[in-house]
Amino acid sequence: MSLVLMWKGGEILKQKQIENLKQSSSAELVQLTKVIVSAIEKYQHMPTLLASNSRVIRVLEHGRAYDIRQLNAELEQISRITEASESYIISPSGVTIAASNYDQETSFIGKDFSFRPYFKQAMSGLSGRYYALGTTTNRRGYYFSYPVRNGHDIIGVAVVKVDLSQFESRLKNNKFNFLLLDPDGIVFSSSRREWLYKTINQLTHEELQRIVQSRRYKTQAFEKLPIVAEESFDEDAHLLQLLEISIDLKGEEKIDRISYLHLSSSIYSLGFKVDLLIPITLIEEEVALWRTIFMACLLILILVLITARLRRRMLSERSQALEMSRHNQAYIREIITNTQAGLITLDEEQKIESYNPAMETLIDHPLTDLIGMPFSDLYTPISDDPEGQSKALFSEVSAPFIVTASEGFLHLNSQAQRHKQQVAVEMTLCKMNLPNSLKYLVTFHDMTERKQYEQELMHARNALEHRVVERTSELELANQRLRDEIQHHKETQQELIQTAKLAVLGQLSAGINHELNQPLTAMRAFAENGLTFIARENITQAQGNLNKIVNLCGHMSDIISRFKVFARKGNFQHSAVSLDTVIQGAMTIMMQRIKDAEIECILPEINAEKVIGDVVLLEQVLVNLIANAIDAIMESDHNQKRIEIKIDQPVNDLDKQDSWLTIRILDSGNGMDDVVLASLFEPFFTSKSDSVGLGLGLSISQRIVESMGGTISAANITQGEHSECYKDVNIGAEFSVTLKAV
Which of 221, 117, 251, 240 is nearest to 179 (CA)? Predict the structure, then answer.
């Protein structure tokens, strides 16, 4: 509440001070406005007088050099006497022919001012007014113009420029800063030179473009005054805060926030507005000082009240502290007496001063005869050098309240019983820096039960380690038996695969004989004919027969090598396999049987498709599937006998980022029922009516395909479902092998 009153009181005081400042400054603003108006408008009739001057008329009519020199001197004298900045005469073309500054570097003579509005106003027969930044002198000025007439004709323009900077220095006042704003809100004149060409409000793009096109301020850039805060005081005044840069005593720049009272008055005859910015820093400092004094008095009052209250509280707390001290001492004595840990205090020479009852209970013997004895007579650390270790314990607690723990034995030499009693303990040593002396507090904890627990834990750990060794040995034996069984399983699987291969070769033995008998018969015929040709000395024909025999031998070698590769045993490695090689190899093995069964075989067009697998194993899968297809066709009653091998386009697996390719074998057999489809890949299962085969072909094929990371499946096909080749077939079987594509 006091802070609120302080703040509100400061605000009321500030408002009152600013109101008084406003009343006194309003009168100064009125006076300043009159001074500015009179200082500028006293020159408004000078162009009229110049326009009626006979020498001006003669110069504009005849332009004689003598008259121009005389006119320049008169204009210079008039400007000096009237304190006008410049006066000059402009021809109808807009070019200055005479000027008061004819002998200066910034002379107007020869300058074209036809673009200035005051020239255009005078040429239209009116008196002109204008304000701008001079294009030649680069000085700010207010311009009055009047037409020069000869009869009814306008023969030129008389102009007087009032330099505003001449009275800015006169109007400077430490009490306030003034701003002369043009209709666009641009500071045209000011008691602060750094505020020139600044704006009170931000100009729009259209306003900036219009000002630039008028060439009033040449290429001058416009920035907004650094106003950081603005609030309304009343209807006629505002409070502003501006950022100002100042130089401190060290010569460094610093930025301050200065508060001003802002008053404004319009000059309707000139189209200008006069603003006063009166600093209110002193008022703010007075308010801040008042608040500081108020706060200081309030703080003193609060401190007095707090001191009185603290004194009463201190006296109460002192009484409570004395009572608490007595209570704590009794409490500590009870704790020391009833604690289960043994406590001993030592003096600075490590001699025993006192002990608690738990200490006598710990060693089951009175300790009155140990008072004043060295601590080393009571406690022996577990160490190769007990005496050195005991000294080291005290050296380690050189800093206050550092605790050192050590394990050792309490011992007591009993002269009556002539034996040494020992108790295993854990000792904690603490250094106590009392105001006038150095003491040590020693705490002992009985380690007897803990030692027993450690012994029991050690025995349990040894038993556990022994059990772990036994279990490890048993697991190693079990693992070895499992590895032996896996190896045996692999060997059995290889034997089954080899058996299936030999079974297929057994079924194809007749075809093999036929394949080899044909070349042998041809070779015999070519050899007999060759002998005849040699007898007739027809060497050319004999060589031709021999070349044919060589070609037939190569053909027989290819057939035999293909069956040898198919029948071989060994380990297989998966790699990139060409489907063309696999299919051609399988067809070479099965071709004779296909011909004997008079089955039409349709093969796919193979480009460069490759899959991950093994050539021999993949050939065995295709041989098994083609052999099953031949058996199914031979058991059917269809007239059409056809086997088709198709290769689907690779399909991408988005989850695994792999590509898969499917090989399909379709036949025109009778298909399979649901029972057969459910048990098709089980070992030793066969659906052939005459129980031909072992029933292992499809089971082995499935294992081979899965070992390559693929899948194999079977389904029935209906009429025309997969190929136009089967449009006359009611039903058939389809086996699909899907492998990872390269």
Answer: 240
Residues 6 or more apart whose Cβ sits within 8 Å of residue 312? none
Fold annotation for 570-740: Heat Shock Protein 90 (3.30.565)
Assign a CATH topology to domain 46-163.
Answer: Beta-Lactamase (3.30.450)
Q: How many CB atoms lie within 10 A of CB 525?
A: 13
- Report the distance separating Cα 546 and Cα 521, nearest Å: 14
User: 346-357 in b/e burial notation, b at 16+ Cβ within 10 A?
Assistant: beeebbbeebbe
Phi/psi for 429 (5° steps) reads -115, 130
Cβ within 8 Å of residue 287, ≥6 positions away: 10, 13, 14, 17
Tell me phi and psi for residue 517, to 5 degrees.
-65, -40
Which H or E run contains 246? strand 237-247
**Beta strand 128-133 pairing with 96-99:** unpaired
Query: For the domain bounded by 339-446, which CATH number is listed?
Result: 3.30.450.20
The structural architecture, per CATH, of the domain 13-19+167-279 is 2-Layer Sandwich (3.30)
pTM over 0.85: no
Measured distance between the N- and C-terminal CA atoms of the chain, rounded to whole angstroms: 86
- The mean pLDDT values, 10 residues at a time, for the chain of 742 residues are 68 78 80 82 88 89 89 89 86 92 89 90 90 83 91 91 76 74 83 82 83 80 82 81 78 81 83 83 75 83 90 88 82 75 81 81 74 78 64 58 57 44 76 78 79 83 88 85 76 62 55 58 74 84 80 65 54 79 82 84 86 84 88 82 88 72 90 84 71 68 86 80 50 89 86
Distance CA 226, CA 228 (A): 6
Report residue 159 CA to chain centroid gap.
69
Which stretches of 339-411 are DSSP H helices? 357-363, 386-396
Do 13-19+167-279 and 339-446 fold alike per CATH? yes
Can you list the positions of beta strands (E) in 484-640?
Answer: 575-578, 600-602, 610-613
Domain ranges of the chain: 13-19+167-279, 46-163, 339-446, 570-740
Computed on alpha carbons and rounded to an integer, the radius of gyration of the chain in Å comes to: 61
